[in-house]
Amino acid sequence: MKRVGLPVILALVAFVAVALSQPPVAIAASAEQIDRDARKALENLYAKSESAKAMSAKAAAILVFPGIVKGGFIVGGQYGEGALIKSGQTVGFYNTIAASYGLQAGLQKFGYALFFMTEDALKWIDKSDGWEIGVGPTIVVVDMGAAGSLTSTTAQSDIYAFFFDQRGLMGGLGLQGTKITKLDKALPVE
Q1: Cα(169)–Cα(107) distance, integer angstroms
Q2: SS3 letters across 73-89
Q3: Helices 31-48 and 50-58 sit at what angle, rounded to 10 degrees?
Q4: pLDDT for 159-168, tens place per residue?
Q5: What pLDDT is recorded for position 1?
Q6: β-strands 61-86, 89-116: how paired?
């Protein structure tokens, strides 16, 4: 019988500990809940990043995914629901889904916001019944270190992605291969 090494055992223990410490995932949240969570997440992002706040004034729209859950052991996946905010109004709801395989173990919860800087970039999210990130407009992932030097004047890409509220243990955050699809949910009544 083959012995399992200490790193594998520690990874499994960490995975189980994080999985048990997280609240249950609410799949198919109501439109009102998604809208409320997205707006709160965006407020929190603005409080932590002046660059994100400045970009919001020039963005055509912002797609906010406040609570994405990513997990896996060899085979992994992630899922989350978010709101598209344009001119201060929620105009649609979307989900983000991705699958992966390889050397991975863990569970993580995080959020991200996509700042669409042009109307042309915004059109990609509804093309061909879903948009696969990595195909279409240029996306720049902004880390908190680079965010300090990024302004709405120096920003030249189509879309900027800001990650936030990362909790748990899972190797790597990225958007390549993620698919974003419009959800059929009624818009909240203002």
Answers
A1: 6
A2: EEEEEEEEEEEEEECCE
A3: 120
A4: 899 999 888 7
A5: 44
A6: antiparallel
CA-to-CA separations, 46 to 52, 117, 125, in angstroms, rounded:
6, 17, 23
SS3 percent helix, strand, coil of the chain, rounded to 5, is 30, 40, 30
Phi-psi map region of 122: left, alpha, beta (phi>0 left; psi -120 to 50 alpha): alpha
The three-state secondary structure class of 190 is: coil
**∠168-172-177 over CA atoms, to 5°?**
120
Please write the tens of the pLDDT for every residue from 34-63.
999 999 999 999 999 998 999 999 999 999
Element (H, E) at 62: strand 61-86
d(CA 136, CA 27): 28
